[in-house]
Design a protein that fits this description.
By secondary structure, this protein is of the alpha/beta class. Helices cover 48% and strands 18% of the residues. Helix 1 packs parallel to helix 10 and helix 2 packs across helix 3.
Length: 299
């Protein structure tokens, strides 16, 4: 396999350009498919947009969000510059998020929505390095900007970043990003995953590109996943297990469909996607089994 994660994605986009890379629900709750070619081009554009925000190779960028299409776009956009994302989920307490952002020295943090942003704007914790907050979702930008101002934060909507990204991609700028991908060493950090902090302050675990490529090499020799097959992605992507699955999908040229780990949502999504693969934990399978039994009784 290639020596780093951006090159792993590039190879998949070259080999399977029209194959589904992601399936995500639109505003009407219907799944929309995105090909590897579309996903890769968007990643290149985001890398250019992040570069305009002066994101540097080796820089830590917080990513506070649950599993969704935009998470992987932001992740790969950052990794394509050699930056390091620092993920955490939406169920994290404010003290955990502020500690992680501060300890990691993040200048930029990406949040799923205002609720996650307000955990830090309403906190007394000091985060001297944080200057910019990017929001995947925002129902009231004016209110978000007002609350962020108290922390001297600039607010950027991810939708605006995506729109800007589309205008930045040219043959020359794409080559610039791809040349940078080649310069990412396998031993460079890809992410810093923090523990829950239940036994003290959260501890950050640094994982390199080589770590994920090595996992992908092993999984490729074990699982009979075929190009074009689909994974239903439901586990927290900021945990190491589901995080690795995102990259395994690139390894096989397979696709990811985003759902939620609750039976009333998963079961209709199973029917819509008809996935060949899904990873779970005991509590998830128990919830799914109960949901199936309940649905059978209603039928």
């Amino acid at each position: 396999l290639p020596k780093n994660l951006p090159l792993l994605l590039k190879r998949a986009a070259d080999d399977y350009p029209e194959t589904v890379c992601q399936a995500a629900k639109n505003s009407e709750g219907k799944f929309v498919n995105y090909s590897y070619k579309d996903f890769y081009n968007t990643v290149i554009g985001l890398a250019l947009a992040f570069k305009q925000l002066n994101v540097q190779k080796g820089e830590n960028v917080a990513l506070i969000s649950d599993n969704r299409r935009e998470w992987l776009l932001a992740d790969m956009g950052l990794l394509s510059l050699g930056a390091v994302d620092v993920p955490r989920g939406c169920d994290s307490m404010a003290r955990e998020i502020t500690y992680i952002i501060s300890f990691s020295g993040c200048r930029i943090a990406i949040f799923e929505n205002e609720k996650q942003l307000y955990k830090i704007t309403e906190s007394d914790a000091e985060m001297p390095d944080l200057k910019t907050a990017i929001l995947f979702d925002c129902s009231n930008k004016e209110e978000a900007e007002a609350k962020a101002k108290a922390k001297n934060l600039e607010i950027i909507l991810f939708s605006d970043l995506l729109a800007k990204a589309e205008t930045l991609v040219t043959p020359e700028s794409k080559k610039e990003i791809e040349d940078g991908m080649e310069a990412i060493d396998p031993n460079d950090n890809a992410t810093m995953i923090y523990t829950s902090g239940t036994t003290g302050t959260p501890k950050g675990v640094m994982l390199t590109h080589r770590n994920y490529i090595a996992q992908s090499e092993v999984v490729k020799s074990i699982l009979p996943v075929q190009p074009g097959e689909m994974w239903l992605s439901v586990l927290p992507v900021w945990h190491s297990f589901e995080r690795a699955i995102q990259y395994f999908s690139f390894t096989f040229g397979s696709g990811l469909a985003y759902s939620k780990p609750v039976a009333p949502i998963m079961l209709p999504d199973f029917a819509a996607i008809k996935p060949q693969w899904m990873c779970g934990v005991p509590r998830l399978w128990d919830s799914l089994a109960k949901g199936v039994i309940k649905a059978m009784k209603k039928a």
